[in-house]
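Trying the structure run again after the queue cleared.
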Amino acid sequence: MRFFQVLEERNTAMNRISARRQARNDDRENSNLFVYGAVVALLVFIGALLYFYAVDRRGEGPAREGTPPAVQQPAPAQSAPPVTSDAPSK
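Done. Tokens:
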């Protein structure tokens, strides 16, 4: 009976040590995952900035507020009035 009691105490001690070791590993994994996520977010942000810069340089981006909208040019004036069909022809 004493043997099983000693074995159970030893097993409990090993479980506590294993639980501490597992908690340390979990903390390490969580911090590694946080760093990985932060690096990926930073790379996506830098990529978006570069994309918008490239689009702006090509002139495909939205118009800036300081630039006036495109103005339509009036059609050229005709020198002679159009011929109407009401006039008698000779």
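Helices lie at 2-58. Worth checking whether this holds up in the mutant runs.
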